[in-house]
Structure formats: C-alpha cells, structure tokens
Specification:
This protein has 538 residues and is an alpha+beta fold. It has three domains: 118 residues, no CATH class; 88 residues, no CATH class; 237 residues, Neuraminidase (6 Propeller). Helices cover 39% and strands 24% of the residues. It has 20 helices and 24 strands. The strands form six sheets. A four-stranded antiparallel beta sheet has the order 3-2-1-24, with no helix packed on it. Strands 4-5-6-7 form a four-stranded antiparallel beta sheet, with no helix packed on it. A four-stranded antiparallel beta sheet has the order 8-9-10-11, with no helix packed on it. Helix 4 runs antiparallel to helix 5. The longest helix is centred in the N-terminal third of the chain and has 16 residues. It is globular and about 70 Å long. The two termini are 40 Å apart.
Length: 538
Amino acid sequence: MAGYLLALVAILGQGPATIQEDEKALADAGLSVQGADLLTFLSRRAKEQADPTKIKDWVKELGHESFEVREQATARLISLGPSALADLNKAVQDQDVEISRRARACIQKIEEGGRKHLVSAVLRVAARRKAPGALETFLDYARLADSEQTYDDVVSGLEQLSQGDAAATRVLAEKMARGESPASSVAATALTLVNPAEFKKRVGLLLGSSEPMVVFRAAVDLACLGDPSGIPTLVNSLDRFPKREKGLATHLLRKLAGEGALPAADVSGESAKEWLAWQKKGPKIDPVKLEAAAKSLGQTLVILLDQGEALYLGKNNAVLWKIDNLQFPLDAQVLPNNRFLFTEHQGNRVTERNPKGEILWEKKVEGPVAAVRLENGHTFIACKTQALIFGPKGEEISRFSPANGETIMKGVPLPQGGFALIQATPQGGSRYVRYNKEHKETAALDVDVRTSGGRFDVLSNGNLLITEIYNNKVMEFSPAGKQVWSYECDQPVAAVRLPNGNTLVTSMTQMRAFEITREGAEVWTFKAETRVTRAFRP
C-alpha cells in the first residue's frame, strides 16, 4: 500500500470519475479491482469500524521498524476516517517522532476527505462489477454511510444493482421497512429511483420513526418525487432535527413559501412555531417547484479562483460537476435547469454554461466584476467603470457610470429594480451606494471593503452583508449603518445569507467555504488545496 497517499491525491477534487480513473486509483492504492475482492474490502471495513481496539494497534504501528507496516497502518487509519481522529490527535503528542508525524499526516488527509474518495471509488467499481452478493454487502455497509459521508455513493450503487431486478427491489423494500438509520434510509432513497410506487406505499413507517434523520430523509425523498405529503411531518419535526438538517429543511420551506409568506429569516430567525402556523393555513405547493427544490437541496457551487474552476457539490461534498478553463471567475450564479453564469474577469466576458462547460450564452465586456441573471431574462453586469443590463440576445438595455471619479468594486441588482454598488473613492475609501430604477442615488454608507469582484448581499429588510477581509469579520449593517450582526473568521472573502437565515462564507487563508448559523455554529464546510473564493446555493 505504499502508493496509497498518492492515490488519494490523484482522486481528490476530481469530478465524477470514469471507471478507468476509479480502477487506476484503486490499483495505485494497492487494492484489487475485482468485484469479489472489493466486496471483501467493504465487509472487512465494516467489521474493522466496529472494533476500536484495532485503531490503537494501528496507531502503535505508525512507529513500527518496518516501512511497509508503517505504510499499511497509515492507509488503514486514513481509511477509517473520523472514527480514528480521537486516537490520532493523542498520537500527535507521542514522543516517537515518526508516530507523531504520521498521525498528523493522517489527520490532515481525513479532514481533506481522502478516505471518503477512496471508499467512493470502491463503491462505484463494485456496483459496476455486480459481483454475486453485492446488494447484500452494500445494504450491510449502508449503516456506515453517514460516518463515511458516502451516502450518495451507496444509494447510487444500490440503484445500479437493483434496476430492472424485481427480487432486488423486494430486498430494498424489506430493508426500508425495518426503519433503521441510516441503512433503511439508504434503501428507501434507492427505492425512489427504481420503484417510486413501492417507496410511497411504505414511507409512512419512516415518517413515523422516532429517529429524526430517518424522518428528515423520508420527507425529502418524497419531495424529490414532487410529493408534498411529507411536508407536514417535516414542519412538525423541525425542532427534532440536528442543526444541519434543520437548516436544510427551513431552506426548502422558504423556497416553497416564497417571498412574503413569512418574515424574512434575517429579521425573525427561524421559528418552528412560524412554520407550524404556515402549515395550518394549508398552503398550495407546486409539485414541480417542490421536486426541483428538493433535488438541489444542500448542493453548493464553489469557485476555485486560482485554478479557474467551478465545482458543483452534492449534499456530502461529492463533486457532481466540474467546469474548468474559466478565466479568473470573480462571480458565479446557479441558474435553473443545470445552467451556470460565470463572470470571467480576465476573459473580458460573462458566460452561461452547462455542466460540460459548453458556452450557451456569452457577452463580451471589459473587465466584468459581477453578473446576475434577472428573472425577466435580462443580465446585470458590473464592470470597473459602469453597471449595465443586457437583454437575452445581448442587446444593451441600460448603462450607468458612477460620478466623481469613483469606480465599481462589487455590484448586485435589487429585487424591486435598481441596483447597489460598492464604489471605490479617489481618496482610497469605499462606499455602499443604492440606486433606483432611474439611476438616482437613494442611500449611501461608508464601508471597509478592500477587495474587488463578486457580489455582496442586500437583504430583504434592507440590511447590508459584507466582508471586511483585513478586519477578519463578516458584518451586517442596518440601512442606517448600525452594526446588527458580525462573525469573526480569518480573511473572509465573500458572504451570502441563505433563505433559512444561515450564512455561507469563504475564507482566503483557510481555503474553504463554510456555513454558519445566526449564533455562529458551523454546520457545513468544504476545504480545498487552493483559494475558495465564492460559494452559492441554488
């Protein structure tokens, strides 16, 4: 297993892998690519996770006199993921320099997600091989899907193994009926893909489960089928969910309720009582809108500026799509129907692309810093010296340039019309300025913004959300300029307020994106080996 770490590096950060890429990664890690051997790997791994004494033995072997034993112990500990972290953190303090060094390396790789990517490759290849016993092995392994962060890979494998197989579908239905978490949830999600009708017949058991995660997943699975029957249970269970899932649930509910149905999350906070009152009114839910919102729930678009890449991540940070060869993308937007809008500053253009990176629409402008597709199909583009709006065919609708020698650092259109800009002054300062539809200034504040490019958030209550990169703060100000909220972190680059009231932040020095609650609790993170400069949720 001497090549294990190199194999991890090879598959980290990649998009959906081909079978050749997966097989190469496994071969480089010293793993067989034969179906039966991969099932043995998964079965053995499940047993090893249940035996904590082996973790301590492998930590000791990090200092073994044999290089091969040290490498094998390193590989095994990384492959265990978070369950090994407690012992590894202790081992960092070990007087044996080799144990300490390797423990630190293991922790770094686990936190980067290397373990997850290797196991994901095993799951993908094993599903393609369809070796005898694969379905049962996957269902047994499903109990680790949460700790492994391989939920989606296990579901995808079960779908491949069960598609068109009546006997396999019955096995999934039986596993779903047991109500275990997460194994029954994994089986249930797979069943929505191979036999939705069978899933709907049995989902009541999961919605009535005493386990919050089982309830959450069952309601979301129904929503992914455009079925709103799980929404009342979702609302009634909000206070039972973990912070991450409560945030996702309220994000979904906000998208269904629409503007004005409830006080904005940034004004009221998220209250289960508010949602219960909304539910009692019997709101009409559009099945098409519900399905689209549920299927994109928890997905995130992140921008790796220096790489010229955009990664579209699934709920467990698996890379669903990777779009590269972007020319210094300062801004991006997730559009409907798997489309993306990119502000390519050094390419002097704004492009709309599909997941393959193919350009579907393009507007050439000098040095764009931000761009937003509007609901009417027009596109707002901010450049250094002007803010413009173009029609679907690229025709110019309007143009504006700031007065007094000020230049544009950031820009965003406003829902009621008009736009807001962060403008650099000739004196070296910066101002937040709002303009109405007639391009008349309606409000202005001095702000401490030092970097150009991208959007900022003007909230529904008129508050301003910005990052003060060199003060190491994310700041929210009232329209009058009063500070109403702040969060401290290392060099925040951008911040976006989500519909549920949480905030997505990217950090320059930490090279990551993360989601925090109003109270500052972190509920999601994505880390890269390069600068992560933007993060957006559909």
